[in-house]
Amino acid sequence: MASLIRVLVLVSFVLSSACGSSPAPASPPAPGGKTVDPATAGSVTGRVSFTGTVPPAEIIRMNTDRNCVQNAGPNPQSDALLVANGALQNVFVHVKDGLDASYTFAVPTEPVVLDQRGCVYSPRVLGVRVGQPLTVRNSDPTFHNVHALPMNNVEFNKSTPTQGASTMQTFTVPEVMVRFKCDAHSWMAAWVGVTAHPYFAVTDAAGAFEIRNLPPGTYTLEAWHEVLGTQTAQVTIGEKQAQTVAFTFAAK
After folding, report:
1. 222 to 37, 42, 198, 225, 229: CA distances (angstroms)
2. CATH number, domain at 187?
3. Do 181 and 207 have their domain in common?
4. How confident is the model at residue 63, as a pLDDT?
């Protein structure tokens, strides 16, 4: 009888211990890294130029989809190479090297929007942060899909079948650049630069770019263009210093 009582007490103790135990506490979050001091941060501005004869733009053949033809107007042209008065548009400029890895940056929660409008992607070149939402929206009265072809991130292919449809995606690692296409319309293309920091810009119609709030340091800037390739330049920014950088591309 005594043995039976001892067994029952032991079983009761084991069960009460199992039921009352709590899961192991989660590991504490990693301590935050350094943040940029706006009182000492500087900036870099610049212009990207094109020299030589500008190749004629490719005419896009949209006659496979009457909805595209109706919205595009006569003789739609590719926007892969946009040059005006010697200025090169749609160049992705970013800090490639030199940023102290101990800096941390809050990831924006506001999505970046890539629009399928007029049977082209707009904008053609854009930037997004790792972990930031990217929304692709169909503004056309026709079927589109979103087919991303990264090398380091996960490939995805999602439908945006009707006007007003959209899809959202995030990237997990930096990658410059990620190509986007639409399998329904072979001429549609976009390029997305994915970075772990906020130091990037896309040149406007005047070829201009600006990168703000850079901590003092020496950096390698890379300028990327889908047709003309890449160039790099080194820049040193002191406290509260504004520097300028120029890139010049030529026809291949």
Report:
1. 24, 18, 14, 10, 10
2. 2.60.40.420
3. no
4. 85
Render pLDDT for 159-185 as a digit per residue (tens, 0 to 9).
999 999 999 999 999 999 999 999 999
Look up residue 5 and give its two tokens: 């009582």
| Model pLDDT for residues 95-141, shown as the tens digit of each residue | 999 999 999 999 999 999 999 999 999 999 999 999 999 999 999 99
Task: Kindly state the average pLDDT of the residues 195-208.
Answer: 98
CB 166 within 8 A of CB 114: no
In a domain, 62, yes or no: yes
Q: Where are the beta strands (DSSP E) in the chain?
A: 42-51, 83-84, 87-88, 92-97, 112-117, 120-122, 125-129, 134-138, 144-149, 156-160, 166-169, 175-182, 185-195, 200-202, 208-214, 217-225, 229-237, 242-250
Whether 134 and 83 map to the same domain: the answer is: no
Q: Are residues 85 and 162 in the same domain?
A: no
Q: Which domain holds residue 233?
A: 37-94+201-252
Amino acid sitting at position 91:
V
3-state secondary structure of 226: coil
